[in-house]
From TrEMBL:
Residues 185-237 form the HAMP domain. InterPro entries: HAMP_dom, Sensor-like_sf, TCS_sensor_his_kinase. This is histidine kinase. It comes from the Bacteria. Keywords: Kinase, Membrane, Phosphoprotein, Transferase, Transmembrane, Transmembrane helix, Two-component regulatory system.
């Protein structure tokens, strides 16, 4: 025995397709927006690092010349408090770290002109920027290195992604429900009208007309259904008229043959032929009566 699955209504199918369309649009717009915001935030982090490097190098040149480490320590303490800055350091011209956000690294010697060994491994390392520290006369005192921290950016992007997923689910649910309601309002009455008309046709009522509620595709379908029932009405009316005429003709033939058979003076051969004609006329009359009874079961007028 063939198993039949659960039937899905047209309204439900339309709702699902509409929901998928909304999901595609939201995902497309959301992904492009997400990528664009991430690029903007990364650019902002880099610009902020460049601005910090420009400001620090100007101050560091004076403080290095003055030989006051406390001012540098205060400056790097402020840099460490900034959540967008991972680590920062000043390396003098001899390759020695003279200031660092991590005080344990002060005094370490590193390769000149390279940031290798200056920064420890960070959880969310960002871009590394460097700027030379020069005197007013242009003499090189060292380099300022800064590594930006992208943890805040990543945290913001995670929250943004969660928000976008929530918005997607909410929009998907709202879109499916809205499409379901609209499709049911649009399709329910025309489909119910066609189903009701089909039941009338199945019971032989060809006089039933489907109401045309709107001038759209469903309205055209209702008009086509009414046109079909009109053709069927004319067909059955023709059948009824034809069977009535056949009934009259068969009754006339039967009456004439029975009357002729009752007349005397016929030989045996003629009587046999007349009897056969009479029997055939009776059978034709019975068939015509059944056809007439069958055609009368159909209602073709209001």
């Amino acid at each position: 025995m063939k198993k039949t699955g659960r039937k899905i209504s047209i309204a439900t199918k339309i709702s699902i397709y509409f929901g998928l369309l909304i999901s595609f649009l939201i995902i497309t717009v959301g992904c492009s927006t997400y990528i664009r915001i991430q690029q903007i935030m990364e650019l902002q982090i880099k610009e902020k690092g460049e601005a910090v490097a420009s400001a620090v190098t100007a101050l560091a040149a004076e403080w290095l010349q003055a030989g006051d480490p406390q001012l540098l320590n205060k400056l790097f303490s402020d840099l460490k408090a900034n959540e967008d800055i991972g680590e920062a350091a000043i390396v003098n011209s001899g390759g020695k770290i003279v200031a660092h956000t991590n005080t344990l690294l002060i005094g370490r010697t590193v390769s000149e002109g390279s940031s290798e060994g200056i920064f420890q491994k960070s959880v969310s390392p960002g871009p590394v920027l460097s700027a030379p520290v020069r005197t007013a006369e242009g003499s090189l005192l060292g380099y300022f290195y800064i590594q930006m921290d992208q943890e805040r950016t990543k945290r913001y992007m995670r929250n943004l992604a969660l928000t976008m997923v929530f918005v997607l689910l909410a929009a998907l649910y709202a879109g499916i429900m809205l499409a379901h309601i609209i499709s049911k309002r649009v399709l329910r009455l025309p489909i119910n009208d066609l189903m009701e008309a089909t039941r009338h046709i199945a019971t032989g009522n060809f006089a039933y007309k489907v109401p045309v509620r709107k001038q759209d595709e469903l309205g055209n379908l209702a008009q086509a259904f009414n046109t079909m029932t009109a053709y069927l009405t004319n067909l059955f009316r023709t059948v009824q008229l034809s069977t009535m005429e056949m009934a009259k003709s068969s009754q006339l033939i039967l009456a004439r043959t029975e009357s002729y058979c009752s007349t005397a003076g016929k030989d045996q051969k003629e009587m046999t032929e007349l009897t056969e004609i009479t029997n055939a006329a009776r059978r034709l009359a019975r068939v015509v009566d059944r056809l007439n009874s069958l055609s009368l079961q159909f209602k073709i007028t209001n």
